[in-house]
User: Fold this.
Amino acid sequence: MSWRESLYGQFRRPTGLLGSVVGHVMAFKNRRRGLWVIERLAPRPGLRVLEVGSGPGADAARVIGRLGLQGSLVGVDVSEVMVRQASARNRAAVRDKRAVFVRGDLADGLPWGAAEFDSAYSVNCAQFWPDLVSGLVELGRVVRSGGRIVIAVQPRRRGADESDSERWAERFQGAGRDSHLKLIELARGATTPSTVAAVFEKP
Assistant:
């Protein structure tokens, strides 16, 4: 495995010391993208929110700040390193039981019952899912009727350009139809090439 492939693997599933460093880099570099996606999620006080691929917990901190004392956030990530980092970054909310971060994989199914969350979101994680439609179906299962699901991807391959963003927009449109979620917004912005955010509503 090349050095580049090894580094890319750390963004998919951070491990060890290098994974910890990658987490801090993600938290620092992705602020603008995170804020842009969160605007589309539109979290409100009192909601219960799920984040898939919570990473170092920087976006979670921004969402928690909008949920008030009665709201809560659950973050799930495949990396134990990221679970620890997110828990540390949001230690006050974790202490007050307004946030919890757990290890898990969307592909294996989420350990929550139907309609347990008011909304869900995932940023730069969907490109690692084995199947986009199955991932959306599982998120739709745990989100209540009328709830919002926001999935965002920033194309990051070497040489990525707006054509990659356009392909993601097309993929989101098709996956929304196949998963029986209502696509209410398909936005591009925040980064170069554009991050693509699909905003779905659970029927």
User: Anything to note?
Assistant: Confidence is low (pLDDT under 50) at residues 1-11. The chain has one domain: 3-201. The first helix runs from residue 3 to 12.
